[in-house]
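Posting for a labmate who doesn't have an account.
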Amino acid sequence: MKTPPALAHGLGRPTLEDVAAVAGVSRATVSRVINDSPRVSPEAREAVHNAVRQLGYVPNKAARTLVTRRTEAIALVLSEAENKVFDDPHFSTVVRTATEELSTMDTQMVLMLTQDETTHARVLRFLGAGHVDGALLLAPHKRDPLPEAVAGLPIPVVFGGKLWMPEDGLHLVDNDNVGGARMATEHLLGLGRRTVATITGPSDEKAALDRLTGWQQAMGVSQERAAQLTACGEFTRQGGEQAMRELLERLPELDAVFAANDLMADGALRVLRAAGKRVPEDIAVIGFDDQPAVAPLSDPPLTTIRQHPAEQMRRMVRTLLRLVAGEEVEPGREVLPTELIRRASA
């Protein structure tokens, strides 16, 4: 193999023509190899790959896009406020995992945050203009029009969690929120606790409603009693603190609490500590998520339900990339199991 004259004189980065000269094939053959065309002999393919390695050739992505009609970029769309995305450990896990998983496939992730009509319209224009090969969309809030609009775009989409619209023909990956909440409540009842309250998340989020359903299934109480045992809050420490204060005022006999996420549970622990309540001796507490930055570091360390947002995102990415590649993937909702992680709070 010879070195092309341009490279020999240090005149720039290797080109398609340089690879063809070193491999001893035509420029068209090099293009077919780089774009994974089957119309190339094994000998020519090997020669091109050897030349690419020798020269350190990097394909021109803009030119490759014209051939493959692929951008090698995927959008991760979150219908959440910026402060929630960057402050909540759950979302940081989601974003980090998507970035890492896509990078192993030489695909760029485009993070898009949207929470009002103006940003919704901008996201839809971007997705519909062919800037990305597909989209990952985390289950949004009730009355959010984005999922239905995105599902109607001519690009593959994979959703995370349950939706507020019909899911027929869609691809979704979810965690077993109902089963996890039921497991947590049954554990508290198994400890002999008699008054097991719940701090539930916002009623416009499917995960919060599913966790409330799991608690109700385990408790088997009337709707009136369930209302007495329930306090609602945002998925934040402050939300957990406020709800815990309400429950202490309303239920002097309270001896256990299931909180719908770890941040709320940690907020509840702070209120109980300030009120002179011992955990778990006086009141046992269980959270949901098993966030490494929250649950093991709580005081006391938090018993919780472990879900797997990283695995959820990995499966979403892999499903989407299969769809982008043109594979037939059966639509439906995949549900990942949850598990009880016992620590000192219950």
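Reply:
Got it, the structure tokens are right above this. The first helix runs from residue 5 to 8.
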